[in-house]
């Protein structure tokens, strides 16, 4: 339910509709499900979402660790929706407690602030499209790549529409944020 893609989900990356092109099959909608998780800065919640759905969810990690009668049903009942977050793949957390995520349709990285429940753009650049992975550094920067997955030959059979050079970005975290170390 939470990790399945939305029916007829259609993202637009750099203004291009992102359909699924399978050899010998009719054009269809992308079916990306769950992909991307991040622990809250204090480790009490696990944030997740589906690429093919624009919503961010969380579940208390205590519910995931529970092993008793009805634990699975209780875990499912404890999932919280935090509203729309855009089209995203990778997630990351910083010491501010912000949950960063790609925002492909906005050419951006955005973040969810669990303190006030808002989602806002963190950095925008016209070179940004498909952010798959990101990492916060102990130097106070968020590092991420824009891999143009949506324009590769898996989505455009026989054609590689990616435009080189690819890019590795870094952006200074707000409020002197840094990497979270939970161990």
Automatic annotation (TrEMBL):
InterPro entries: 6-blade_b-propeller_TolB-like, MRJP/yellow-related
UniProt KW keywords: Secreted
One Pfam short name: MRJP
Gene Ontology CC terms, in alphabetical order: extracellular region
Subcellular location: Secreted
Entry's family note: Belongs to the major royal jelly protein family.
Designated name of the protein: Major royal jelly protein
Organism name: Corymbia citriodora subsp. variegata
């Amino acid at each position: 339910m939470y990790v399945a893609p939305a029916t007829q989900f259609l993202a637009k990356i750099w203004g291009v509709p992102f359909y699924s092109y399978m050899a010998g099959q009719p054009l269809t909608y992308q079916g990306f499900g769950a992909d991307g998780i991040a622990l809250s800065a204090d480790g009490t919640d696990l944030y997740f979402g589906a690429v093919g759905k624009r919503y961010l969810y969380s579940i208390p990690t205590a519910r995931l660790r529970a092993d008793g009668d009805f634990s699975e049903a209780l875990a499912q009942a404890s999932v919280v929706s935090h509203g729309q977050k855009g089209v995203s793949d990778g997630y990351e957390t910083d010491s501010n407690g912000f949950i960063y995520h790609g925002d492909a349709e906005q050419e951006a990285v955005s973040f969810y602030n669990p303190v006030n429940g808002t989602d806002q753009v963190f950095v925008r650049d016209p070179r940004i499209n498909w952010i798959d992975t990101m990492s916060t550094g102990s130097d106070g920067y968020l590092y991420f790549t824009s891999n143009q997955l949506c324009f590769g030959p898996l989505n455009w059979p026989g054609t590689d529409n990616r435009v080189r050079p690819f890019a590795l970005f870094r952006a200074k975290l707000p409020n002197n944020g840094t990497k979270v170390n939970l161990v």
